[in-house]
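pls design
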């Protein structure tokens, strides 16, 4: 699905050059659940950002199926992102004057949503919160709205950069389990940066990074059973 070949990224700020990615080679297969692990500053976000076209590469190529993302103009990339890619951010980017339902509706309006919105809200455990506004929801609930919104867009792949950063242990586990379930039940390819070692064990592939390099690629043969999450 995605092929990253010899990708380097150098950030230049004044006299200082940071080699954030050094000749990265990696593939993302359709339907995979991928976890990126590594210490702070190792290049995880940069890798996610260049793969998803939020940032440009300094060298190398990235293909998404037959499309060379590294050859697209900014405008073409924006369109490609809208049509094919989903994002879940740590700051959930919900619209404050819209309810949970309406925020998910926004995702559906952008993409080709094949799922009833109430089903999506049910999937993320927010049936009762359907008509609440973001300020009436906990952090975990807001994150789940953003998960449902990204699903409603029906992207080919969903990128998450430390989505549970501000949640407690129990809630972050649930959200990561939810992402895993989207991977199995909706067959979404998911790439997630997380520190949660337990979730890394459930990934098909773990990309371990350090100092801008992939130091280890771990493949797991995980059994994918759909599981029910109790949201409490
Ligand atoms: P991680 O997500 O693993 O914490 P990042 O990809 O954010 O790491 O950063 C990798 C390196 O690139 C770090 O040294 C960081 O300081 C540097 N960096 C990231 N973004 C920028 C930027 N916009 N300008 C300059 N340096 C950056
Ligand atoms: Mg980061």
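designed seq:
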């Amino acid at each position: 699905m995605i092929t990253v070949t010899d990708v380097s990224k150098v950030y230049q700020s004044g006299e200082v050059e940071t080699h954030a990615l050094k000749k990265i080679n990696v593939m993302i297969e359709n339907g995979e659940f991928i976890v990126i692990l590594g210490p702070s500053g190792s290049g995880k976000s940069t890798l996610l950002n260049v793969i998803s076209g939020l940032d440009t590469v300094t060298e190398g190529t990235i293909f998404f199926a037959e499309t060379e993302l590294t050859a697209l103009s900014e405008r073409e990339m924006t369109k490609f992102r809208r049509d094919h890619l989903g994002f879940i951010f740590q700051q959930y980017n919900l619209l404050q004057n819209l309810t949970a339902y309406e925020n998910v509706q926004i995702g559906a309006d952008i993409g080709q949503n094949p799922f009833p919105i109430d089903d999506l809200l049910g999937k993320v455990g927010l049936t009762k919160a359907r008509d609440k506004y973001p300020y009436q929801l906990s952090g975990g609930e807001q994150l789940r709205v953003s998960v449902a919104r990204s699903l409603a867009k029906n992207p080919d792949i969903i990128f998450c950069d430390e989505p549970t950063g501000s949640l407690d242990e129990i809630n972050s586990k649930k959200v990561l389990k939810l992402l895993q379930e989207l991977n199995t039940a909706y067959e979404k390819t998911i790439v997630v940066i997380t520190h949660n070692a337990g979730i890394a064990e459930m990934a098909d592939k773990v990309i371990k990074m350090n100092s801008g390099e992939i130091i280890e690629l771990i493949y797991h043969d995980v059994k994918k059973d759909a599981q029910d999450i109790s949201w409490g």
